[in-house]
Amino acid sequence: MKILLVAGGTGGHITPAIAFGNSRREAGDRVYYVCGSRSMEKAIYENHNVSPFVLPIEGSPLGIKTLKSIFKRSWNMIRSIAIMYERVNEIKPDCLILFGGYISFPALVVSKFMKIPVFMHEQNVVAGKVSRIASRWKVPVATGWRKCKGIKGAYTGIPVRKFRKLSREAALDELWLSDKVDREDRVIVLLGGSLGSSSLIDLVSITLSMVEFARCFFIVLGIDEDRVENKVAYLSNRWDMSPIYGVADMVICRAGAATLAEVSQLGIPAVIVPWEKASDGHQYENALSFLDDRNPGRIWTPEMGVTELIKKIDELENDISRKSNREDSELKNSTDDDKAVSALWRLILSHI
């Protein structure tokens, strides 16, 4: 079968598409990708050894204020529909699967015009604009959470990429931290996400420098230059998350759907800091659903203050101390049995 996957915008859209695509390639299908022209999108694909077809558009014409930008993006959207038509006509896929982001709209229009089976996967609890349009156009929509505001879809979960199995010791070796982290230390990782979240990194980094956390070692991911200061390692962004997850006893992270799906599957407790500028407040809703699914975690927002952040870290750290067994600490291969991939594929087969 030939499958065309469309995903752009952020890692939250792209990494589930790559996880699903890798699964289908292993099953013998021919898989093609389409993304937008943002440098970050192309970097995410490149670092996962995927070469997508790039459409000449960098974002939605909606939600921006200047007339020049609206005109430019609208024109590029029209151009992308025409280019997408040529691409689909060339590949002749058996189906298109859209993983969201602005880039999905040209593919949605073309698939409906050419009468090719098309499916939508919505990763967030609050459906995006293209997912809502797809739902109105009677396109089958798979949802990443058990509830999804704005559409009626079929719950499948979020496909999660594979990670290498690493012992804690092997993961620390890869991170050059073997001589920095004590055996009894709990490792807490601050994740910035594909959008960087520099404000989160700055805020939490300051907090960590102000407070003495007994038996904890912190890794702050997303800094320009690697360095270690006392019990905090500042590391540059990286796409191979196997060693990071391999040592993480807890994460502090944004509420991007893909990140929450990964830490959920790996069973890593999380202090979640929803990005306040996320459209329709979808990150806060993602965080609530993460907790509703009985995942270990806490939600913190800057309005709660630094004291409350320290309290939530301490609460989760104490939970880890009670439940964790260091002798059994090995990163599991999260997609050995990825139920989301299987559920999404069953949904697709039921409509083809």
Strand order of the largest sheet: 3-2-1-4-5-6-7
* Poorly predicted parts: 325-329
Shape label: globular
Strand content: 15-25%
DSSP summary: helix tally = 12
Q: C-alpha Rg, in Å?
A: 21 Å
Let me know the number of strands. 14
Major pleated sheet: 7 strands, parallel
Q: Average pLDDT across residues?
A: 88
Order of helices and strands: EHEHEHEHEHEEHEHEEEHEHEHEHH
Work out the helicity level. 40-55%
Amino-to-carboxy terminus distance:
11 Å
Structural class: alpha/beta
SSE map:
Elements: E1 2-6, H1 11-26, E2 30-35, H2 39-47, E3 53-54, H3 67-91, E4 95-98, H4 104-114, E5 118-122, H5 129-136, E6 141-143, E7 154-155, H6 168-174, E8 186-190, H7 198-210, E9 216-221, E10 227-229, E11 232-235, H8 242-247, E12 250-253, H9 257-266, E13 270-272, H10 282-292, E14 297-299, H11 306-323, H12 339-349
Parallel strand pairs: 1-2, 1-4, 2-3, 4-5, 5-6, 6-7, 8-9, 8-12, 9-11, 12-13, 13-14
Antiparallel strand pairs: 10-11
Coiled coil: 306-333
GO molecular function, one term: transferase activity
Keywords: Coiled coil, Glycosyltransferase, Transferase
